[in-house]
Every structure is written in structure tokens, then in C-alpha cells.
Amino acid sequence: MNQPIDFFRGGPLAALQAAFAAIGDAPRADEDLEVDGEKVALFIDGSGEYTHAARQLPDGLWTSKLGNNEDISHELRPLEGDEYGRIAAFMSKRRQSRFPLSSGRLQTNYNLRTRV
User: Fold this and answer.
1) Would you state the pLDDT for residue 116?
2) pTM over the 0.85 mark
3) Residues 100, 16: Cα–Cα separation, whole Å
4) What is the spatial distance between Cα 18 and Cα 97, in angstroms, rounded to a whole number?
5) Can you tell me whether residue 112 is helix, strand or coil?
6) DSSP of 4-19, one letter per residue?
7) Quick check: helix, strand or coil at residue 85?
8) What is the dihedral of CA 69, 71, 73, 75, to 10 degrees?
9) Any idea what DSSP says for residue 46?
10) What are the distances in angstroms from CA 66 to CA 22, 25, 36, 47, 71?
11) CA 82-40-28 angle, 5° bins
12) What percentage of the chain exceeds 90 in pLDDT?
């Protein structure tokens, strides 16, 4: 089942990194596309609290849910600024197949949901 990571804005970056690590993500050095990986960029504000996360799409663009609006596709760096803060970390896990397993269960990637 595709379980969302549901978190509110605020809190130390380390707490958000721990949440992603709990579902198999590992730290990465940069935003370069990983063909077999699913990468997230984690944003923080000036006080070091997390504010936003964006997920990289297979074509190298990024996707975000901005407030209560629909998900958008975008370049990563233009999102940095007063509203969402700056990128502080990247994490990634191996992209999983979306094809049914022999047990009949469907493997899916995580779903990221933020609340403002």
C-alpha cells in the first residue's frame, strides 16, 4: 500500500531525514538524476526548521505540492527563496517496480504530503 509521509512544517531537519531514512532513503550529495533512484530535496528556513520537500521525476524535473494547490512540475532551484527556504539535503532510495509481485501485492513508491 502506498503510505504517505505526513508531516507539518517546522521541526528540525534531522527529524525529517530520520522519517525518510525509516522508509529506506539514504543521504545524497546533490540533485543529479539517479536513473534507478527516487530522490527528494528537503528545504529549511533560516532557523533550520524544515519547510518543504520536492520529489524528482524520472525525466529530471521535480514535483511539489504547493499549499493546498495541485502538484506542480518544476525546476528545483527556482523554488528556493523566502516562501520555501533553501535546499538543505537530498535523500534517495532505489526506485521500485510498480508491477504486481507474485504475492499479488503491488509495490509502489512513497507518496509525500505536506501540511502548511
Assistant:
1) 42
2) no
3) 30
4) 24
5) strand
6) EEEEES-SBHHHHHHH
7) strand
8) 70
9) T
10) 24, 23, 26, 21, 7
11) 105
12) 50
Residue carrying C-alpha cell 546533490: 30
Candidate from 45-54, 63-72, 73-82, 94-103 with smallest mean pLDDT = 94-103
Which residue in this structure is represented by grid cell 504530503?
Answer: 113
* Tens-place pLDDT, residues 56-80: 999 999 999 877 878 899 999 999 9
Of 57, 24, 43, residue with least CA distance to 90: 43
Euclidean distance between CA atoms 46 and 88, whole angstroms: 11
Cell of residue 19, nine digits: 522519517
Q: What is the mean pLDDT of residues 33-48?
A: 93
Q: Is residue 17 within 8 Å of 28, Cβ to Cβ? A: no
Burial of 56 (0-12, 13-18, 19+ CB in 10 A): buried
